[in-house]
Amino acid sequence: MSPAGSHGQPVRPAAPVIVPTLEQQKVLLRISAQRERIRERRAARFLAQQQTLDAGNPGAGDSLILQGVAFAKQHPAAVAAVAAAAMALGPRRLVRWMGVALPWIVRLRR
Prior knowledge:
The protein has helices at about 20-55, 65-75, 75-90, 90-110. With about 110 residues, the chain is mainly alpha-helical. It folds into 2 domains: about 20-60; about 60-110, no CATH class.
């Protein structure tokens, strides 16, 4: 019978300690420095995002769709009025007017 651990599993011998060579140590130091740079970059990006949100301009970098959703949440009555007008116009007129309005929206976005 083999010796058992506290859970009835066999006890494994400790893994041998591997000492890195000088070349391996240099590579490990470069990897460590790169990981630190990545951490600092992430922290700086997070801080910049927080400052943008704190500046009272939430959603400045969001897509047009996300900004539209945010507008709909803030102004539900206006969205309902636009939806009612769109239903009253009908699909043909709506598509025609979107062909006119969409280029304006894209230009204003720039």
